[in-house]
Specification:
The protein is about 45% helix and about 10% strand. With about 325 residues, the chain is α/β, with parallel strands linked by helices. The chain has a single domain, classed as Metal-dependent hydrolases (TIM Barrel, Alpha-Beta Barrel). InterPro entries: ACMSD, Amidohydro-rel, Metal_Hydrolase.
Length: about 325
């Protein structure tokens, strides 16, 4: 039997053409100011040089492939940097953003189509454009789309997204849930809490909306991959189960125990702790956990395979997470 490749489902591409497109447009300055307040000045001073050191890995396919070889990664699922969401944009600008993002990501991956697969973007702030944006991504040969944990004034449980979930389910498209920013705002503006606390919080909130609202009941074959191991939810799902069983309001929207939905979702392995990774595999199942590194950012895993080995999983579970499950998930019909 052929050994499945090692697949990293959490890797990013930076698209300077997106930032050139939105430069100077109304709304950008306000969005940047919000991002600055959420992160705080110390984080911003570190972020600039950090990105600068990684530009080649983020933009040059040859440099990316060499880095993959160094890490023992055969295939990456490449998604745009979440900084390209631009959920502040009006409809006309939003359509230009998603089209350019989809086309540029596809072009980047075309340098090595056997090793680089891609995801596009959808403008969550304009639900009426979402299905069209997903269709455009699939037309480019991408495998699905990346979304944040919310859009301004809308949670992922919003009924306006039902057509998007239905179309993603119908087409088998992957929906990669990757937060950008945290609505706790200035409470997290020191010590990089905006990321270390904010990202896991946003993951947990977004997944809870998908579960408790019944989205996963209505779309049982929806392929959602949650970044950062799903944040705090998988290791604290017992509290959700308790609420569902004891309170009428908590159990009103979904048909089953919240923990059961973890086996309908996919999670990357980027949890930075071998014991947390073991727990994630326990509650979701090895067939629902995928290798993820957040390549090439500093909050990622420089050695994702080493991090996976540190969890001391069984051989079968290790192989599932290393690439067997992702190979099947990324396979195009």
């Amino acid at each position: 039997m052929t050994t499945p490749p090692t697949v990293d489902v959490h890797a990013h591409v930076l698209l300077p053409e997106i930032e050139a497109l939105v430069a100077g447009l109304p709304g950008l300055a306000e969005a940047k100011d919000l991002d600055a307040r959420r992160n705080g000045p110390d984080a911003l001073r570190v972020n600039g040089p950090m990105i600068g050191e990684r530009i080649a890995r983020l933009t040059d396919p040859a440099v990316r492939l060499a880095a993959m070889d160094d890490r023992g990664v055969d295939v990456q699922l490449v998604s745009p940097s979440p900084s390209h969401y631009h959920y502040w944009a009006d409809e006309e600008t939003a359509e230009k953003v998603y089209r350019l993002a989809n086309e540029a990501t596809a072009a980047h991956c075309s340098a090595a189509p056997d090793r680089l697969r891609g995801l596009g973007l959808v403008p969550l702030q304009h639900p009426d454009l979402a299905v069209r944006a997903l269709g455009h991504a699939l037309e480019q040969g991408l495998l699905g789309v990346e979304v944040s944990s919310h859009a301004p004034g809308r949670e992922l449980s919003d009924p306006a997204y039902e057509p998007l979930w239905a179309r993603a389910e119908e087409t088998g498209a992957i929906v990669f849930l990757h937060p950008f920013g945290c609505t706790l705002d200035e409470r997290l503006d020191q010590w990089y809490l905006s990321n270390t606390v904010g990202q896991p919080t946003e993951n947990a909130v977004a997944l809870s909306h998908l579960i408790f609202s019944g989205v996963l009941d209505r779309h049982p074959d929806l392929k959602v991959v949650a970044a950062h191991g799903g944040g705090y939810l998988p290791t604290h799902i017992g509290r959700s189960d308790h609420a569902w069983t004891t309170r009428a309001d908590a159990g009103a929207g979904c048909d089953h125990l919240p923990s059961s939905y973890l086996k309908r979702l996919y999670f990357d392995s980027l949890v930075h702790d071998p014991y947390v990774l073991r727990e994630l595999v326990r509650v979701a199942g090895a067939g629902r956990v995928l290798l993820g590194s957040d390549f090439p950012f500093d909050m990622g895993a420089e050695d994702p395979l080493g991090a996976l080995r540190a969890a001391r999983l069984s051989d079968a579970d290790f192989e599932a997470v290393r690439g067997a499950t992702a190979t099947a998930l990324l396979r195009k019909d």
